[in-house]
Design goal:
- There is one protein chain.
- The chain is α/β, with parallel strands linked by helices.
- 34% of the residues lie in helices and 24% in strands.
- It is built from 14 helices and 16 strands.
- The strands form two sheets. Strands 7, 8, 9, 10, 11, 12, 13, 14, 15 and 16 form a ten-stranded mixed sheet that branches.
- Strand 10 and strand 11 form a beta hairpin.
- The longest helix is centred in the N-terminal third of the chain and has 17 residues.
- It is elongated, with a radius of gyration of 23 Å.
- It binds L-homoserine (HSE).
- L-homoserine binds next to helix 7.
- The site of L-homoserine (HSE) has 11 residues, from helix 7.
């Protein structure tokens, strides 16, 4: 029996421990020796849990137990998760994590330590919850030059946008429900303001180029400025507003754009129908063409399933490193101002003529509502810097949202 430890007995960590009981036969089909969770590290006691007798409060008990070969880190946050992961890897213990914050901040360093100590650092659950995307990026898509990734990468905000679109429910109420379901981060600002999705697109972009895309370098907007009016206009126009992480690369033309922002997604795009807590990652490879990976992006068992898939791989590769192509060389991103795109704009009607003059090829969404006190239009293709300059000269602009190109 291979012995493992779980760090953090929260939503995902408890799912991992339960999974080894619920799906024992599936685990043993892949790893006939079996895996046993010997320790659970948490600051709290769990007197009502059948697993209480495995709970320890001192990481050194785990680190100094020579039986432990694999650690599952589901603590979240940078510290002490970073220190614990580093110490484990330095001892040759493989670490599997759902901690996107830690992977985005220290991924290449932990991968290097794992390589140097003949063990592995794997992070399937850090992006897309239960969706297999990291492993396909590392293995199945290895022969591809990936040129575009468009992802719905945050379950909380997608759940919120879907509920707001389909029901008359307030932002606060729907956020509370996402928290009750265990989707939201401890500090939901990370979801709402796009930081969580930004970390995930940073991880995917790094795997896309094999270098480090720093999430601090990625322009990031969340959904807090999206209003019910925008959602209603989007629906009328045949769009859905989604928080997306987008990465686009053309090595010949020399650009690499990465961004997290709300986008209007047209009904003709496969991401349009991705609703609720579901995530989807749309990937374009130069040979394979378009692929879409779809599944539950958050929640106890979907995420636990992804972590355990890594634990099984580590158990099958004890004493050796499972390679991940991600160096610590920083990837320089292109100036986002040069990126061309189309925009949705909602503003007061008083600036209608000026807006029409500035955006000659715009489409008037409110044309049939001559008495509307708002002017709503979509632009033709324009660079971001030209768009921002033009919009800054218009009166009372209430909302601008990018439109996803097919
Ligand atoms: N808060 C995250 C989400 C959890 O809503 O997607 C999964 O990473």
């Amino acid at each position: 029996m291979i012995k493992a430890a779980v760090l953090g007995f929260g939503t995902v960590g408890s799912g991992v421990v339960e999974l080894f009981d619920v799906n024992r036969s599936c685990v043993e089909r892949r790893v006939p020796e079996g895996i046993e969770v010997k320790y659970i590290l948490d600051l709290r006691e769990f007197p009502d849990s059948p697993y209480q007798n495995r709970v320890v409060h001192d990481f050194d008990i785990i680190l100094n137990d020579p039986e432990i070969r694999v650690i599952c880190e589901t603590m979240g946050g940078r510290e002490p998760a970073f220190t614990f992961s580093k110490k484990a890897l330095e001892k040759g213990i493989s670490v599997c994590t759902s901690n996107k914050e830690l992977v985005a901040a220290h991924g290449p360093e932990l991968l290097r330590i794992a390589r140097e100590h003949n063990c592995s650092y794997l992070f399937e659950a850090s992006v897309g919850g239960g969706i297999p995307i990291i492993r396909p990026m590392n293995t199945s898509l290895a022969p591809e030059s990936i040129t575009r990734i468009v992802g719905i990468l945050n379950g909380t905000t997608n759940y919120m946008m879907t509920r707001m679109e389909q029901e008359d429910i307030s932002f606060e109420d729907v956020l509370k429900q996402a928290q009750e379901k265990g989707y939201a981060e401890r500090n939901p600002e990370a979801d709402i303001e796009g930081h969580d999705a930004c970390r995930k697109i940073a991880i995917l972009s790094s795997l896309m180029c094999g270098r480090t895309v720093r999430y601090e370098d990625i322009p990031c907007e969340g959904i807090s400025r999206v209003s019910m009016k925008d959602v209603a206009y989007a629906r009328r126009m045949g769009y859905a507003i989604k928080l997306l992480g987008i990465s686009e690369r053309d090595e010949e033309k020399g650009y690499f754009y990465v961004r997290t922002a709300p986008y209007m997604v047209p009904a003709s795009h496969p991401l349009h129908g991705v609703e609720g807590v579901f995530n989807a990652i749309f990937v374009h490879g130069n040979l394979v063409d378009n692929l879409m990976f779809y599944g539950r992006g958050a929640g106890k068992f979907p995420t636990a399933s992804a972590v355990v898939s890594d634990m099984l791989d580590c158990a099958l590769n004890l004493g050796q490193n499972i390679p991940v192509r991600w160096s610590d060389e920083v990837m320089q991103l292109s100036d986002p101002g040069q990126k061309t795109g189309r925009y949705f704009v909602r503003m007061s009607a008083e600036g209608r003529e000026k807006a029409k003059a500035l955006f000659a090829d715009s489409f008037d969404v409110t044309a049939e509502h001559a008495h509307s006190d708002e002017y709503v239009f979509t632009t033709g293709p324009v660079t971001e810097s030209a768009f921002k300059e033009a919009v800054s000269s218009l009166p009372d602009v209430r909302s601008t949202i990018r439109i996803l190109e097919l």
